[in-house]
Amino acid sequence: MDARLLADQIPSLRRYARALTGNAWAADDLVQDTLERACSKWRLWVVGSDLRAWLFTVMHNIFASQLRRTPPPHSVVPLDDVAHELQDDADPGRDLGTGLDLQRCLMQLPEEQRAVLLLVTLEDLSYAEVAKVLGIPAGTVMSRLSRARARLHELMDGGASVPNRPGLRLLK
Fold first, then answer.
1. Which H helix or E strand runs over 76?
2. How many Cα atoms sit within 13 Å of 107 on the Cβ side?
3. Is-contact 34 13, C-beta < 8 A?
């Protein structure tokens, strides 16, 4: 495997990892773990197949394993601690609070919905590619995406901030 091929995928991997974890340090660790696993398992990649999709699959599997081992801590970070990170990429006219709200709302989505939403919207993967990355049917991708978009819209509009858990339904 050519190291340049891997290096070309790092920005996408970092973006997806940051959105999955909600934390720059955890995202960098996840990217590092993904690249290490990819290098050690490079023989599993089929030459000519989509390297990007394979790397996202590796990352998703590592992230899911980490979640099973240790649930992510729910901590509140003061705005001043993250404002400089958000301002680096921000437009001068962009409302900093909106970015924080979106990140907070994304982190409230169940992991399986968040992964589908991020792969489709942030990484611009097709439903078929997302299905392959996550190892689920394309119909499941579409239903998770629909539920994620609806829940995100509800959260951004100030909906109830009840954590999403399997089997938990919000009553209106």
1. none
2. 17
3. yes
CB 141 within 8 A of CB 86: no
Is this prediction's pTM over 0.85? no
Taking 70 as the pLDDT cut, the residues of the chain under it are 1, 71-100, 159-172
Quote the pLDDT of residue 32: 94
pLDDT at 165: 42
Token pair 């023989």 is found at: 43
The 8 Å CB, 24+ separation contacts for 104-112 are 105/152, 105/155, 105/156, 106/19, 106/22, 106/152, 107/22, 108/151, 108/155, 108/161, 108/163, 108/164, 109/148, 109/151, 109/152, 109/164, 110/164, 110/165, 110/166, 111/20, 111/63, 111/64, 111/67, 112/144
